[in-house]
From TrEMBL:
PANTHER family: BNACNNG10540D PROTEIN, F-BOX DOMAIN-CONTAINING PROTEIN
Protein name, UniProt field: F-box protein
Coiled coil segments of this chain: none
Stretches the record annotates as Disordered: 1-20
InterPro entries given in the database record: Gal_Oxase/kelch_b-propeller (IPR011043), SCF_F-box_component (IPR050796)
Transmembrane segments: none
Lineage: Eukaryota, Viridiplantae, Streptophyta, Embryophyta, Tracheophyta
Source species: Adiantum capillus-veneris
Polar residues: bias regions: 1-10
Entry superkingdom: Eukaryota
Length: 321
């Protein structure tokens, strides 16, 4: 296990002084373990700590420097992270207030290293949020407007346009975005699965929405790995995994069944799937994590996380702004 770092609590009489020392130590430790490569990291987010796994970390003194714990304290008091999405060094977080538990919360872009926080404005027309995506300084939101029609909106965090949400378009009633899926960014476009066996392609430059048929009838899972789009068929989870790779130029899917010796004969189900670099991580319901190496076609178990990973995994590329 990697180094463990925690910040002090507010009840500590020396909290302000030790908070500054802890933050500096966090940055130094991350610089030594994570910032000297451009490789993405697997991230689990808890109420007051980030648990980061450096896949492919080099061995040092016969120990694998893999899991790293980074304590944090949000700059806004009484704030809790209800949900999060990631893009490079930044996290898009949905902040809820412990003082107003029934308030839907608000969105902010946060860099855990610099602890910088930027609040996003209200949506242009979304009344009920379905899901979000974050990538290349853009946030894409899918939700229902006041007419109960699914609408797609986009916001540029670098303010390349006016600092407001812009409507990209509306979807047919039969093709609503699936609520349990996040919107993924790859190669300049955003992708998300919809109902009725289709995938929505969101082009932020042309402000265009395109629906593409998907080949598998079962409930699939969309992931991004090494700048490639994959789809996993859940009906194969009991014994093997079927990966469908998307050809962005031909708009064609290619299937590739993969046997997993660790899943055969097992009653464990897969809770979350995430692409990390050249690997795909499968978080099982017992909190163990399976890794499939796309390059070498090898399965392996990741060493246990120092806490039970109840939150869905994120991808993080820690850098100081």
């Amino acid at each position: 296990m990697g180094d463990s770092i925690t910040t002090c609590t507010d009840t500590d009489s020396e909290a302000p002084k030790r908070d500054s020392v802890s933050k500096e130590s966090n940055i130094i430790t991350l610089a030594k373990h994570s910032l000297n490569t451009d490789s993405p990291r697997l991230l689990f987010l808890t109420k007051d700590a980030l648990f980061i796994h450096a896949l492919g970390a080099q061995k040092k003194d016969d120990e694998l420097c893999s899991w790293l714990q980074l304590g944090f304290s949000l700059p806004l008091p009484h704030s809790l992270i209800a949900n999060a999405w990631s893009a490079g060094p930044h996290l898009l977080i949905l902040l809820a207030s412990s003082l107003s538990p029934f308030h839907p919360g608000h969105l902010s872009v946060w860099n855990p290293l610099s602890n910088s926080l930027s609040k996003l404005p209200p949506f242009a027309s979304i009344w009920h949020l379905i899901t979000l995506g974050f990538g290349d300084n853009m946030v894409v939101a899918a939700g229902f407007d006041c007419n109960i029609q699914c609408v797609i909106e986009i916001y540029h965090t670098d303010h390349r346009t006016s600092p407001a949400w812009h409507v990209v378009g509306h979807l047919p009633l039969s093709s609503n975005v699936q609520e349990h899926d996040e919107i993924l960014y790859c190669g300049g476009c955003f992708y998300v699965l919809c109902m009725e066996s289709s995938m929505l392609v969101i082009d932020p430059q042309a402000l265009k929405l395109t629906l593409q048929d998907i080949p598998c009838p079962s409930t699939p899972k969309l992931i991004i790995s090494n700048d490639n789009i994959f789809m996993v068929e859940e009906k194969y989870f009991s014994s093997s995994v079927a990966l469908w790779k998307f050809d962005e130029k031909q708009f064609h899917w290619r299937a590739r069944p993969i046997d997993c010796p660790y899943l055969q004969g097992s009653s464990l189900k897969i809770a979350y799937i995430k692409g990390v670099g050249m690997s795909i991580c499968f978080v099982l319901e017992n909190s163990s994590i399976l890794i499939y190496d796309l390059l070498n076609h090898v399965w392996s178990f990741m060493e246990d996380c120092p806490f039970v990973p109840t939150s869905r995994p994120l991808i993080w590329e820690p850098r100081i702004d």
